[in-house]
């Protein structure tokens, strides 16, 4: 099997430099790419049960290089990022007889990647892991950068660690079984990357976004690589989110509050909440004289063109209380030194971090958004 068609991007962190490998049917070729990482080692694959039919291909491939392979299935869904699964996986993996050279492989979306990364970071005081992200969102976002974790009853991702993978395998074909809503949800994070620091990429998305979503593999791969390069560029400068990495949270303070209000009941996908959150961040930017209406109009038009929501009412009428959204937004303080930070666009391709925005302005924005319903 040829590997000449495989492209790579390097993520540079203090813990290590590692490669993301991009290509078609990369899961089938996993042994060729992963040989130097997994040769003669014990491998445990943690997979999303949704992928059971694709697991066999990965197992066969990995078995060609590794000394032995065990697979453990996890139910799909956000609820799987739990203490129960942390406990279950740690005990089950220890029982397989692993040592410090053993490697975990996360085979699934962001849920499996975050959970597996966290397990790898604590097992035997830390073992290596490889990400094989299987959703658009996880390929452009969660599989790179080393944030791992599970959820607390007090909020998402509050228990976790920084633990970088040793390699990431990004297979374009594996996305073909995702439904269009999940594809769009990941695409929202791609747009986010462009809005943070690359106007030319946004212009490219305006031209090619619809075909990326429809499934043109060549454009999809190009788009995913560009998005990954933006994320790795930001991580290289600020791995532990002391500053610029927070820009990746554009649209997330609003987005997380919306998801939390709806108790992650499936009404809204993460990327949909983020897309509404991005539009709200642009509206907030206009209210604080940071950005032009013209830029908001361009972003709104692109969201409309590809089918991403730009307001809550397009998804649900379950959200009735602006004050409750405001209260839930305070949860984001927990991971940012007790100060609510907003990522505010100044123009397409440029954002900045603002603290201490007048709560009255935010509440008026929330009132407008929710009254609109
Ligand atoms: N660590 C980070 O830096 C980071 C960044 C962004 C998001 N996240 C986390 O990522 C998670 C969201 O990731 P996600 O959107 O990938 O969610 P997910 O893992 O829940 O996957 C979404 C859905 O797609 C299904 N699925 C996965 N691969 C599939 C495939 N190839 N074909 C068909 N169905 C498939 C899953 O079973 C699930 O139902 C959240 O928990 C979020 O907190 C982490
Ligand atoms: Zn996100």
Structure summarized in a few sentences:
This protein has helices spanning 30-38, 52-63, 83-95, 110-122, 136-142, 180-197, 199-214, 217-237, 252-261, 270-287, 293-306, 322-329, 359-371, and strands spanning 7-12, 17-23, 42-48, 68-74, 103-108, 128-133, 147-152, 155-162, 167-171, 341-347, 350-355. It has 373 residues and is an alpha/beta fold. β1 (7-12) and β2 form a beta hairpin.
Helix content: 40-55%
What is the name of the CATH superfamily of the largest domain? Dehydroquinate synthase-like - alpha domain
Number of helices: 13
Name the CATH class of the largest domain: Mainly Alpha
Poorly predicted runs of 5 or more residues: none
Structural class: alpha/beta
Widest beta sheet: strand line-up:
1-2-9-6-5-3-4
Dominant shape: globular
Query: What pattern of helices and strands is seen along the backbone?
Result: EEHEHEHEHEHEEEHHHHHHHEEH
Strand content: 15-25%
CATH architecture of the largest domain: Up-down Bundle
Euclidean distance between termini CA atoms: 54 Å
Summarize the main sheet.
7 strands, mixed
| Tally of strands | 11
- The name CATH uses for the topology of the largest domain is Dehydroquinate synthase-like, alpha domain
Mean pLDDT: 94
Domain module tally: 2
Q: List the ligand species.
A: nicotinamide-adenine-dinucleotide, zinc ion
Radius of gyration: 20 Å
Can you describe this structure?
With 373 residues, this protein is α/β, with parallel strands linked by helices. It has two domains: 7-177, Rossmann fold, CATH 3.40.50; 180-371, Dehydroquinate synthase-like - alpha domain (Dehydroquinate synthase-like, alpha domain, Up-down Bundle), CATH 1.20.1090. The protein is 46% helix and 19% strand. The chain contains 13 helices and eleven strands. Strands 1-2-9-6-5-3-4 form a seven-stranded mixed beta sheet, sandwiched between helices. Strands 7-8 form a two-stranded antiparallel sheet. The chain has a two-stranded antiparallel sheet with strand order 10-11. The chain starts with 6 loop residues before the first strand and ends with a helix. The mean pLDDT is 94. Bound molecules: nicotinamide-adenine-dinucleotide and zinc ion. Zinc ion binds next to helix 10.
């Amino acid at each position: 099997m040829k590997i000449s068609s495989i492209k790579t991007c390097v993520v540079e962190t203090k813990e290590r430099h590692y490669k993301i490998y991009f290509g078609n049917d990369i899961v089938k070729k996993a042994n060729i790419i992963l040989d130097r990482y997994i040769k003669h080692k014990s491998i445990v694959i943690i997979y999303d049960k949704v992928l059971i039919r694709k697991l066999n291909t990965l197992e066969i491939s990995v078995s060609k290089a590794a000394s032995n392979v065990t697979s453990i299935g996890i139910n799909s869904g956000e609820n799987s990022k739990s203490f129960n699964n942390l406990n279950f996986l740690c005990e089950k993996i220890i029982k397989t007889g692993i040592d410090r050279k053993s490697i975990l492989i996360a085979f699934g979306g962001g849920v499996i990647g975050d959970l597996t990364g966290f397990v790898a970071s604590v097992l035997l005081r830390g073992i290596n892991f490889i990400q094989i992200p299987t959703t658009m969102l996880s390929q452009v976002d969660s599989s790179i950068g080393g944030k791992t974790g599970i959820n607390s009853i007090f909020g998402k991702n509050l228990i976790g660690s920084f633990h970088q993978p040793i390699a990431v395998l990004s297979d374009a074909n594996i996305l073909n079984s995702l439904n269009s809503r999940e594809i769009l949800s990941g695409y929202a994070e791609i747009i986010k990357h462009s809005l943070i620091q690359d106007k030319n990429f946004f212009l490219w998305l305006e031209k090619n976004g619809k075909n990326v979503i429809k499934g043109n593999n060549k454009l999809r791969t190009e788009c995913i690589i560009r998005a990954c390069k933006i994320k790795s560029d930001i991580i290289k400068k600020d791995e532990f989110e002391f500053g610029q990495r927070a820009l990746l949270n554009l649209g997330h303070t609003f987005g997380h509050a919306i998801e939390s209000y709806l108790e992650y009941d499936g009404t809204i996908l993460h990327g949909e909440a983020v897309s509404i959150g991005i539009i709200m961040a642009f509206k907030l930017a206009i209210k604080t004289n940071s950005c032009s209406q013209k830029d908001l109009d361009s972003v709104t038009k692109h969201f409309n063109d590809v089918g991403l929501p730009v307001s809550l009412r397009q998804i649900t009428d379950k959200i009735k209380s602006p004050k409750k959204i405001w209260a839930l937004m305070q949860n984001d303080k927990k991971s940012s030194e007790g100060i609510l930070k907003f990522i505010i666009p100044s123009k397409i391709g440029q954002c900045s971090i603002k603290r201490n925005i007048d709560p009255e302005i935010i509440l008026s924005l929330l009132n407008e958004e929710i009254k609109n319903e």
